[in-house]
Amino acid sequence: MAAYLPLSLAILVSLLAAAAASDHGDYSHPNSGGEKKLVVQVEGMVYAQSCAHRNSWCLDGATPLPGAKVTVTCRDRKNRVMAWRSVKADGNGYYLADLGDGPPAAAYYKGDPTKACFVRLLSSPDRKCDDLTNINYGIQGAPIRDEGKGSPADGYALYAAGPLAFRPRHCAPRRHY
């Protein structure tokens, strides 16, 4: 079986290289219609959920989680990953992912970055609060929304995701027997 590994790895690498080369033709330059490239940024907050609301979507009493990492993923019109960024929250739990100078809006899945991009929790720097929660779909992929900051027609758009949270691993029992 070990003899097949280098051959299968070489085939996989060549297939990925060919796919990447063919994909760049779709987006690297504005099309003949003159569509502008779209600079996409996604912002949001990451919190540490309080023990009082563990196993719920409630963020009452939650505190910002500095240094938490999230990933922002966007899909192309064929539903393939076309952009991906991992970012770290600042000291206030705020993150801003800049996906850079991307393709025109029409190249995104269903022609709309709000349908093509999502945010997922990646890691927490706090070992006491590093269990993932699915608050606002932080595990499945939190949808982004248009906040009216910038416009695809202007070639720039800032989107936002709902607040995401990690929860404590261990909490004191709520009932005493």
UniProtKB/TrEMBL annotation:
Signal peptide start-end: 1-21
A Pfam family the protein falls into: Pollen_Ole_e_1
A cellular component term, taken from the record's GO annotations: cell periphery
Keyword annotations: Signal
UniProt xrefs under PANTHER family: OS01G0164025 PROTEIN, OS01G0164075 PROTEIN
Protein name from the UniProt record: Pollen Ole e 1 allergen and extensin family protein
